[in-house]
Structures are given as structure tokens and as C-alpha cells.
Design a protein that fits this description.
The protein has ten helices and 13 strands. The chain is an alpha/beta fold. It folds into two domains: 198 residues, Rossmann fold; 94 residues, UDP-galactose 4-epimerase, domain 1 (Alpha-Beta Complex). The strands form four sheets. A seven-stranded parallel β-sheet has the order 3-2-1-4-5-6-11, with helices on both faces. Strands 7-10 form a two-stranded parallel ribbon. Helix 3 packs parallel to helix 4 and helix 5 packs parallel to helix 7. The longest helix has 22 residues. The model has no long low-confidence stretch (mean pLDDT 96). The structure holds uridine-5'-diphosphate. Uridine-5'-diphosphate binds next to helix 5 and strand 8.
């Protein structure tokens, strides 16, 4: 049998790089693609000498060309943290709209199956709890998160249209908050923010009163769920996440215990449209994929903390120096 060939977009990012590892472990030939706006080649360093891996420095919102056959396309390119959407709103819109369109076109000519990375953000600030796939969501299209949420909603719509109109093999995963090694320390998300603050001896910044909830999934569990979804025959969106829900205030306490820091928590204003609660209903994933998360938060946090501690000290103090194009 011919070796399977996979294109992973966003390959230098947190999830993309873990997916590359998974496909390499499955014996596939992996083509990683990234424009390196938020991704980092360090996440792929270990794969550069692998004969089953190659890397293309490319922005998928421009025409995408890949020579040779492709069996699977995994579209994981996109800024993924609220501070990134604020800094690069137009690229955020383009990668999930124009970029998805380009990759669907590529999937058609290659006769490949495509899986797109959607998000719990399609539910916005949800009024249904926990969130099931049937819920249509509560998104503010013109708010600061709208550039991400609406682009991902468009991504789902155009992906379904290619499935129904062209008969393309498509899969849609709705990813809930995920954490683990290779998250960017300065990406502004709550876990790297808290761990970074603890390691630098700063107070932990809680936005709002900390009563808002999130449900955090360890990256290995997420990758397993995504892999199973790709191999399944289900074309509708599927939630993949860990239903263990926690308030941000309690989460800060967990990080304080984990790191043994003497720092306290301080309160900052809540960003606009910050969802008040979030928890995946994973009944569908359990039924059709036989999947559920295996790594509990205590274990996942221990592994993630070990990773952040292993980084060179200068990483802890690195600010974002990259200049973004305004287009
Ligand atoms: N948050 C916080 N302190 C921080 C960073 C984030 O309290 O330093 C809060 C944020 O307001 C949100 C939650 O933590 O309620 C999760 O934020 P994150 O940016 O990680 O992801 P989101 O789920 O909001 O996309």
C-alpha cells in the first residue's frame, strides 16, 4: 500500500506540530505548512531531519500549491488566542475564509479528505450549557472576537457546502480550550499567562471576578479525538474537549499550588464578550468515535509545567517582537 500523504496547515503551531508528530508516528509522509505569524519553527525542529517530513513556508490565504498526491488535509492554521485576534484581525479573518476556500479547492483536485479545525467559539457566549453540536451559538459578529468566531463559522459553512455540492470528503472538529507543551508562553491565554507569571514571580492576573468557567483538555487527548474523527465517516461538526469544568479563580489556585509560588492573584477588567461559561457536551464523540479524554487536569498540568520550566529563561521574558502586516 502507498504511504499516506498528509498536509498539515499551521504545522509550526501548538496543535499543528502535535498533529505532525501523530501522523509521522502513524507512518505517513507529512507536509507541514505555516506562515510563521504565530507559529514557531522550534515546534518542528525535531522533524526537520525526518525523511517523512517537509516544510513549506507559506500563507494559505494565498493560492496553495503542493506537488504530488495528498490523502488528507488538516487545516489548523489560524491565530488562536484573543490577544492575537486583536493584533491581527484581518489575517485571522482571511486564514479561515480565503484559506479554507483554497484548501477545499486543493482537496478537490487531489481527491483528498479534509478536516478543518473549528472551535467552541462558534457558540460565542453560550446560553445553552453544556454546549451540544445542535446549539447555534450566541456570537457578536462585530465584537473583538468576531473576526475569529465568524471566520470559523464561515469555515464550517463553506466546508459543508463543498461536502453537499461537490461530494468532497470533509470533517469538522469543534475544539474546546486545549493545553500542553508547545503553547506559546506569551500568547495571552490563561494557562501560559498564569504559569509564566508564577515562574517570573509576578502576581496572577484574573480577568473579571474569576467566576467565568472553562474546561481544559490535554493536547494528547485532543489529538487522539481528532485522529479518530478523521478516520470516521461523520461529516457534521463534533465537539472534542474535556468536560471537566472549572472557574478561572479556582484554576488560578491550582496553578499557585502546582508551581508553589508565593504570589497572589490580582484582578483586571474582563475583556469584552468574554464567554461566561464553557463546557463541551461530548456525547456525540463518545458515541461515534468511542473517544473520551484520559488525562486529568492534575496530570496534564504537571506535564505542561515541566515543559514551561524546561524552556530557557530568556523565553520567560520575551515580548512579542514580530511586526504584523496590516492587511
Ligand atoms: N484570563 C484571565 N487571566 C489571564 C488570561 C485570561 O483571567 O491572564 C481569562 C479570560 O478572561 C477567560 C479565560 O481566562 O475568561 C480563558 O481565556 P483564554 O484567553 O485562555 O481563552 P478563551 O477561552 O477566552 O478563548
Amino acid at each position: 500500500m502507498r504511504q499516506k500523504r498528509v498536509l498539515v496547515t499551521g504545522a509550526a503551531g501548538f496543535l499543528g506540530s502535535h498533529l505532525c508528530d501523530r501522523f509521522i508516528a502513524e507512518g505517513c509522509y507529512v507536509i507541514g505548512m505555516d506562515n510563521l505569524i504565530t507559529g514557531d519553527l522550534k515546534n518542528l525542529e525535531h522533524l526537520f531531519s525526518n525523511k517523512n517530513f517537509e516544510f513549506y513556508h507559506h500563507d494559505v490565504s494565498k493560492f496553495v500549491f503542493v506537488p504530488g498526491e495528498l490523502d488528507y488535509i488538516m487545516h489548523f492554521a489560524s491565530p488562536a488566542s484573543p490577544i492575537d485576534y486583536l493584533k491581527i484581525p484581518i489575517q485571522t479573518l482571511k486564514v479561515s475564509s480565503l484559506g479554507t476556500h483554497n484548501l477545499l479547492g486543493l482537496a478537490r483536485v487531489k481527491n483528498a479528505r479534509i478536516l478543518v479545525a473549528s472551535t467552541s467559539e462558534v457558540y460565542g457566549d453560550p446560553t445553552v450549557h453544556p454546549q451540544t453540536e445542535e446549539y447555534w451559538g450566541n456570537v457578536n459578529p462585530i465584537g473583538p472576537r468576531g473576526v475569529y468566531d465568524e471566520a470559523k463559522r464561515f469555515m464550517e459553512a463553506i466546508t459543508m457546502a463543498y461536502q453537499t455540492y461537490h461530494g468532497l470528503e470533509t470533517r469538522i472538529v469543534r475544539i474546546f480550550n486545549t493545553y500542553g507543551p508547545r503553547m506559546r508562553l506569551n500568547d495571552g491565554r490563561v494557562l501560559p499567562a498564569f504559569i509564566g507569571q508564577a515562574l517570573r514571580g509576578e502576581d496572577l492576573t484574573i480577568f473579571g471576578d474569576g467566576s467565568q468557567t472553562r474546561s481544559f483538555c490535554y493536547v494528547d487527548d485532543l489529538v487522539e479525538g481528532i485522529y479518530r474523527l478523521l478516520m470516521s465517516s461523520h461529516v457534521g461538526p463534533v465537539n472534542i474537549g474535556n468536560p471537566q469544568e472549572i472557574t478561572i479563580k479556582d484554576f488560578a489556585e491550582e496553578i499557585i499550588k502546582l508551581t508553589g509560588t508565593n504570589q497572589k492573584v490580582i484582578y483586571h477588567p474582563l475583556p469584552q464578550d468574554d464567554p461566561k461559561q464553557r463546557q463541551p457536551d461530548i456525547t456525540l464523540a463518545r458515541q461515534i468515535l468511542g473517544w473520551e479524554p484520559k488525562v486529568d487536569r492534575a496530570e496534564g498540568l504537571k506535564r505542561t509545567y515541566a515543559y514551561f520550566k524546561s524552556l530557557p529563561t530568556e523565553e520567560l521574558y520575551k515580548k512579542e517582537h514580530r511586526e504584523f502586516e496590516k492587511k
